[in-house]
Amino acid sequence: MTTQAEQTSVQTAIVAEAPVERAFQVFTEDFDRIKPRDHNLLEVDIAESVFEPRAGGRVYDRGVDGSECQWARVIAYEPPERIVFTWDISPQWQLETDLSKASEVELRFIPEGDRRTRVELEHRHLDRHGSGWEGLREGVGGEQGWPLYLGRFAERVA
Amino acid sequence: MVTYEADAWTALGDPTRRAIFARLAERPRPVGELAHGLPVSRPAVSQHLRVLKEAGLVTDRSAGNRRIYRVDPDGLAALRTQLDRFWNEALANYKQLVEQSTEEDE
């Protein structure tokens, strides 16, 4: 049996061999090397992904031509325990123009001893993106739409 | 579920199926209505619908002697699959970075 909350969220976790302070710091400071690079809403290659480490901060990609794409807003920044940010990207992998449809991502950093940290990630309220399919007319047919995105996955999986 | 992703991708890789899917995203429709306005025969539309259904993208129900197709409300599953992969990849990168930088500090 799955609950409603489980159906509208994605959860994952890892354990890192590092103190919790370090684990927290690396997530924001090295976000550029954490975010899978091929997930790009810009027209050009990404030069850098930036995570501004404060509540109210922006999360954005900067392209090699200087263009920017902000795709998240930091809601909570509580070192070394917790980070919450919005996910302003639609299921069609385009910026969500209606921010009330944004989902949110929470990271929890839980010490398991002095040198070990469990990092739990929950991406929740996915149902806010409409039924998951609203607005698909624009996204599905376009080159940058969902089929392309799935195609990239398919290539990598193959 | 890798197979599911591949199926959804394959299903939407075809332009006619994308057109059918886009029309169903507007509202539920019977086969006849879907076929109308598309440059393919009704049996061909039925065939495409079968592929979309197997990929978990659309569902159907009987209404009298017709079948009404609509986008699967559990299409959320496809989004979840994508995000699950995205975050697992991100956290794997993260773990490597954290442990690498911690070793360097020592």
Report what the structure shows.
- Chain A has 158 residues and is an alpha+beta fold.
- Chain A contains five helices and seven strands, in the order H-E-H-H-E-E-E-E-E-E-H-H.
- Chain A has helices spanning 4-7, 20-29, 31-34, 136-141, 146-157; strands at 10-16, 46-51, 58-63, 68-78, 82-87, 103-111, 117-124.
- In chain A, strand 4 (68-78) and strand 5 (82-87) form a beta hairpin.
- Helices cover 68% and strands 13% of the residues of chain B.
- Chain B is of the alpha+beta class.
- Chain B has one domain: Arc Repressor Mutant, subunit A.
- Chain B is elongated, with a radius of gyration of 20 Å.
How would the blueprint of this fold be written?
The complex is a heterodimer of chains A (158) and B (106).
Chain A: H1 4-7, E1 10-16, H2 20-29, H3 31-34, E2 46-51, E3 58-63, E4 68-78, E5 82-87, E6 103-111, E7 117-124, H4 136-141, H5 146-157
Antiparallel strand pairs in A: 1-7, 2-3, 3-4, 4-5, 5-6, 6-7
Chain B: H1 2-13, H2 15-26, E1 29-30, H3 31-35, H4 42-54, E2 58-63, E3 66-71, H5 76-105
Antiparallel strand pairs in B: 1-3, 2-3
Helix pairs in contact in B: 1-4, 2-4
